[in-house]
Amino acid sequence: MTTLVRPEQKAPAKEKGVTQQQRPLWLLTPGGILLILIVLIPLALAVYLSLLDLDQYTLRRWIEAPFIGLGNYVESLDSGLLHSIWISVSFSVLSTAATVPIGIAAALVTQNAYRGRGLVRAAFLIPYVLPSFVVASVWRTMLQPDGVVNAWLSKVGVDAGLWLSGPKSYWTLVLVEIWAAWPFIYLMALAALQSVDHEVHEASAVDGVTWWPKLRRVILPYLRGPVLLACLLATLNHINNFTLPFVLFGAPAPDDVNVMPMLVYVTSFQSLRFGLSAAMAVVSLIIIAIPLYVYLRAVRLDVHEEGGKR
Amino acid sequence: MRKMRAATALAGATVLAVALTACGGGDDGGGGDGKTLNVLIGANTQYPDEFQAWQKDISAKFKAQTGAEVKFETFASANDELTKIQTSVVAGSGPDVYAVGTTFTPTAYSTGAFVKLGDEEWKKIGGKEKFNPATLGISGPDEQNQVGIPWVSRPFVMAYNTEILKAAGIDKPATTWDELGQQAKQLTKGDQYGLAIAYKDNFDPWKFVWGMSAQAGNPLVDGKTARLQDPTVRKAYETYFGWLAKDKVVDPAAVGWTNPQAVAAFAKGKTGYFALTTTTAANSLNQGSVKGKWKFALLPTVPPGATSRPAGGVEAASILSGDNLLVADYSKSKDLAFEYVKLVTDQEVQLDYYKKFGNLPANAAALQTLAGDPTLGPVTEAAKKSVATPFTGAWGDIQLALTNVAVQSLPDLAKGSISTAQIEARVADAQKSAQSALDRAK
Fold first, then answer.
1. Which of B2, B11, B403 sits opposite A240 (nearest CB)?
2. Could you tell me if B267 and B260 are in contact, meaning their C-beta atoms sit under 8 angstroms apart?
3. Which residue from A76, B33, B73, B374 puts its CA 20 to 30 A from B184's CA?
4. Is the pLDDT of residue B124 over 90?
5. How confident is the model over B217-228, as a mean pLDDT?
6. Cis check: omega of the bond before A183, within 30 degrees of 0
């Protein structure tokens, strides 16, 4: 006879949670498929188009458009792309740099409760809520040669000249972008401020810290992660902003504000050179991706980890 | 990023279109019962309700004639239209009939996606003879290769303030550019200006430059060669900029004006001439204080610096402006499409369209009935004296390059002086991009 020997339970009790191998990675499939469909395939297509001589003459049978290798890339570097990238990047970095102090200051102002705080907070969001098109139209009207801005300035004896053409148009673009974009930094900074624990404020109060050291050494470190992230997002938004320069200046744009999206737009939809504009897009993607990568490595944007370490 | 989005749109449209063509079967055949014809047409923001009513009316007429439905699809801007054409061309399916602007017709032609009109096709729409001959000037590169069927005309003319001219003792509007400049000087005093010019408009500047050059015998494109670095072009820019920078006969604020802003300025009744407008501006003018005090006049047809047109010069009163109808090559209902084209280019429908929207008929008989109208006389004359811009797929780029010269010159203009050297340097850039566009033209 055989006796059934019960296998001994030698395995240790299972750990709570899941192990490395057991992670339900398949749950990522929907997201992954979407990512492939809306990011990777178009990206691959753009790279492919950038190697074709695709324009209005070949558009109809675009699959058969002549393959010209790096021809479009050579031409794009020769047709003002680098100038446009420089304008785009400098304008974006300037705009971000200017909006950060404004945004943080606004967040600090609305941090503590007082009568009418809700109203102030709502008012701060107005520039952010207005559609870009409206912002640009209103500013364009105000900045006409005989518009209200010049009328005010002439009252104090300043002859401001042209805002929407020539070298000053660059500063117009920066100013309007700052006006429209600072509430984004404000929102992110405000969210971070709200997450500062009550005890921190109490502890500072007990220690008798005055407002400036408290702000600098206690509060601002809390803002670091969210604000650095906001800087990144804001800069990318500035670089991608097409509506603002298009409505402010029209196409063709003055050379001083011929930002990358405008250049790509004119190349694609007025000159109808889709291959060339795809090459421009790829070049700018690469040129912008490198400093982005460096930035991401340098600031180690791990908001969660920081929250955990607290 | 934006360029990515454009590519995505193209890719998306392709995928969709492939799917759609796979599903849709061929449905060509005799009668139109139960069929639908898709027509792409520009939205009318000025008279949206009347436009809706017109569409309904045409649909009813078309149904009575053919038994088929017309489905109108509207586009809000030239960009919308272009995107629609691009995606349809790539996909090989979309609207059956397109209404496109005249200057865009060469670009549309270069895609090769539209039906070339042979004798048979012309017969289907009632014959070539029924159109104002000038309007056929931009239907194709030559008689054998026409794709565009003239639908409406919007010739450019000047508007002038009858009271201001009368007060200055000017009894008839200028017919040469020099005379116009002279009169403008005479009319400029105090807060009154001789001319309203939309210097910052994205389309106006090249029309002046092309017109003056063509009148001097240089149509800007000679076969495969761009002729922008030509004395006629420099003279045109000098004249055009000179009104503001040298003669000071234009409000300095005009460096910031687009065409509607110039209309508004002229409507205030403080300007002698408004140099580039169409009949569609009539409503705005009649709402201003200039009401009852303005008239249309033909634009000058003698080039700057001359008292008569030189040999080889063309009597170009306006660019050939308006809309053409194109039938898509991929259309499965071409017969119906031509029936629709015939319907909307017939005299009665054309006159009705003019009454509702102010666009002149392309139909010769319909245009003739308007010639007797004293206010419209100059406009119908301009429609007959309109000259087509060069028929090349490169025209879009050339137009852009010509406008860019004006855009980059605005700061100098505002400072009140622009040198010949500055103009020449910018024109050289324009020549370069115009020539490279022509080199690519197929």
1. B2
2. no
3. B374
4. yes
5. 96
6. no
Per residue in B326-362, pLDDT (tens digit) is 999 999 999 999 999 999 999 999 999 998 888 899 9
Mean confidence (pLDDT) of chain A = 88
Q: Is the dihedral of CA B327, B332, B334, B336 positive or negative?
A: negative
pLDDT at residue B216, as a whole number: 97
Average pLDDT for chain B:
90
* pTM summary value: 0.86
Give pLDDT, residue A254: 95
| Strand intervals (E) in chain A | none
Measured between CB atoms, does B326 come within 8 Å of chain A? no
SS3 per residue for A16-73 = CCCCCCCCCHHHHHHHHHHHHHHHHHHHHHHHHHCCECCCCCCHHHHHHCCECCCHHH
For residues B95 and B40, give the distance between their C-alpha atoms in angstroms, rounded to a whole number.
6
Torsion sign across C-alpha atoms A193, A197, A202, A208: negative
Which residue, chain included where needed, has tokens 């190697």? A51
- Chain A contact set for B2 (CB, 8 A): 240, 242, 261, 264-265, 281
Distance between CA B316 and CA A195 in Å, rounded? 71
Chain position carrying tokens 């796979």: B22
Cα A158 vs. chain centroid, distance in angstroms? Answer: 35
Closest approach of A32 to chain B, Cα-based (Å): 18
Let me know: does A278 contact A49? Beta carbons within 8 Å.
yes
- Measured from the Cβ of residue A297, the count of other Cβ atoms closer than 10 Å reads 9
Residue B362 contacts residue B339 (beta carbons within 8 Å): no
Residue among A41, A251, A281 minimizing CB distance to B3: A281
Q: Tell me how many residue pairs between chain A and chain B have CB atoms under 8 A apart.
A: 128
CA dihedral B126, B132, B135, B137 (to 10 degrees): 90
Closest to B104 in 3D by CA, of B44, B42, B52: B42
Inter-chain CB proximity B414 and A161 less than 8 Å: yes
Instruction: Give me the residues of B, 224-263, that contact A with CB < 8 A.
Output: 251-253, 255-256, 258
Instruction: List pLDDT tens digits, range B367-418.
Output: 999 888 888 889 999 999 999 999 999 999 999 999 999 999 999 999 989 9
- Please judge whether A46 and B411 are an interchain contact, meaning their C-beta atoms are less than 8 angstroms apart: no
String of b and e for B77-109 (b: at least 16 CB within 10 Å)? Answer: ebeebbbbbbbbbbbbbbbbbbbbbbbbbbbbb
> What is the ipTM score, two decimals?
0.83
- The neighbour count for residue B110, using CB atoms within 10 Å, is 24
Q: Is the dihedral of CA A305, A239, A91, A121 positive or negative?
A: negative
Residue percentage of chain B with pLDDT more than 70: 93
The whole-angstrom distance between B216's CA and the closest CA on chain A is 27
Residue A296 contacts B where some CB pair is shorter than 8 Å: no
Given a contact cutoff of 8 angstroms between Cβ atoms, the answer to whether B97 and B327 are in contact is: yes
Length of chain A: 310
| Short-list A280, A289, A291, A269, CA closest to A46 | A280
DSSP 8-state code for residue B136: G
* Contact residues on chain A for B4, CB-CB shorter than 8 A: 42-43, 46, 281, 285
Measure the CA–CA gap between A82 and A73, rounded to whole angstroms.
12
Encode pLDDT of A26-59 as tens digits.
Answer: 899 999 999 999 999 999 999 999 999 999 888 8
Query: How distant, in Å, are the alpha carbons of A91, A126, A180 from that of A227?
Result: 19, 20, 17
The residue with tokens 């408290």 is A214
- For residue B86, the model assigns a pLDDT of 81
Other Cβ atoms closer than 10 A to A149: 16
How far apart are alpha carbons B210 and B203 in whole angstroms? 12
